[in-house]
Structures are given as C-alpha cells and as structure tokens.
Amino acid sequence: MHEFDLIREYFIWSTNQASVVLGVGDDGAICDIESGYQLVSSIDTLIAGVHFPQTTSAADVAHKALAVNLSDIAAMGALPKYYTLALTLPEVNQPWLRDFSQSLKQLSKQFNISLIGGDTTKGNLSITISIMGWIESGKALRRSGAQIGDGVYVSNTLGSAAFALWQLNNNEVPDVTNLKSLNRPIPQLELGRSLQGIASACIDISDGLEQDLSHILVASNVGAVIEVEKLPINRVLAKRILKDGDYSLPLNGGDDYELCFTVPEKNQAMLGDIAKHCGIKITQIGVICASGGLEIVGAKNIGESYQHF
Ligand code: ADP
Ligand code: MG
Asked: Domain 151-297 has what CATH class?
C-alpha cells in the first residue's frame, strides 16, 4: 500500500470543527484561533515496549497515545482542539491500521478534536502526537503557583494502571478496571477546565505522584507534606497494600493520568461541587509548606518514579 493511500484510507475523516480551515493533505494545516485565546501545545511519544507492552492492541495504543496528550491539555486547564500524528510503523498491517484508526477517530469525536496532519515513516512502532488547545488568555494552570498553606489534591484513584502492569509482568491476571486504567486512561479535561481560577498549580500524573508533585514543588519553590493513608486507592490494590504495606505503586507507579493540584483555602469549599459536576472523586492528600521538598508520612521502602535515562 502506498503511503498516500494509507493516509487517505486511515487518517482522513470529516470533523465539524469550524476553526480548522485546512486539514490533512497539504504541506501544512491552517487553523483559526479566536481572539482573546492563547494556544496551548504539548507533544508526547509512545514507543512499543517502553510506554506500552508489545502485546497491546492497536485500539488501546491509539487511545493511549491520544489520551496522554489530552491529559497534558487537561492539566493546563485548556480546551483541546486539534492534533498532528507522527506514526512510525514496522510494516503496513491493514487490520492493525484499521483498529488504530477507528479507536483514534472515536476518541477524537468524543472530545471534538481534529486530526490536522502528520507524518508516516517505517521503523520500530512509535506514535507521536502533538496536540493543541485553546485557553482564555492568562487563564492557564501552571506548575508554578502553589503557595504555603494550599491543600494538595488528586483526582480519582492512584496506582491502578501501574498495578495492572505489574500483574501482567508477574503472570497475574489484572482486575478489569485496573487493566482499563492502563490501556484506556481517561483524560480529566472537564476537571482541568473547572479548576481555572480555583487551583493555584496543576500537573497531570504520568510518571508517578511523587515525581510529578515534586515538579509542582520545584516550580513553585515550596515543599509539601502528604500522607500515604490519605491516598485514594482502589479496593483491589488497597487490599494488597494492607498485606505488605508497600505504597510504591500509588506513589511511583505512574500511568495514572489523574490530575494533582493545589488549592488555596478560600477556594476549597468549591471542590465538592466541582467533583460532582465532573462525576469524579477529589481527595486531599496533604498540604503545601515552606520549601524542603516532599515529605511522605507513612511511606517506607518505596522505590523511585519512572526514569527514562
Ligand atoms: P510532506 O512531505 O509535505 O511533509 P507528507 O507526504 O509527509 O507531506 O504528508 C502528506 C499529507 O498527509 C500532509 O498533509 C500530512 O500532514 C499528512 N499526513 C501524513 N502522515 C499522516 C498521519 N499519520 N496522520 C495524519 N496525517 C498525515
Ligand atoms: Mg511538504
């Protein structure tokens, strides 16, 4: 199959986004951006065997590649609009491409975002998505705004995806919901947008809570104290932790794609309504204090967050 036939077959579909003036097919895409808005952009690469097990289905790979990028846009409090896709394939495997394309299209429709271009090359399987979103000027959430006394919060539960991966690697059968967290992460876009003007700092948890919260602390020049007993953990993993007291999965496992954010006291009363509106759980796990790094009360013998190098 010729490269251009492949693109036409699998990577062009109709979208109803008025801001896309020219999509896939030319040397570049053209998009309008409304006045009063800023462009937020982010890029993430998934490499087979590094970011997902080689056995992961095409549909799950596509979902994850887009969802992790959407998660970055969520962490900025922005609205995702369009993305480009750089795909490196070992071969032209049409059933694989069909599943990949269908899954990508489905998630794109769900969040009303358009695929506006890309690049297709041959090599070891890798997927790079560059995503762009809009934010009302000056409203983006950053890592740098946390203040002493702010509460530290996370959405939903932590460690579920990492637990599923651990089980797959240790010949155990993962629980269905944990496996879903690993393969089909849900980007917290509604939460991110709801936190505009409420949260003082925000990050999405991709490499593990300890490492990602530390990014907020360094950027904001503050410290934090969190307690392992307060970490939201699903029932299956909690049961395991009760036995061995090992909190390394929720602290360092990564692949959560939940949001970790800080909120000043005056805004904390609004979090209940936000959680209800977004249909999610929000849990306070600690507080921001004067600089001195991250203190984790109750954690013993935990490993390190994921490091690429
Ligand atoms: P060029 O050589 O000018 O960079 P290409 O031949 O790489 O263009 O691509 C032709 C068109 O197809 C471009 O509009 C490009 O953005 C798009 N495209 C290529 N690969 C993909 C892909 N995997 N997904 C979406 N669009 C793609
Ligand atoms: Mg060109």
From this structure: alpha beta
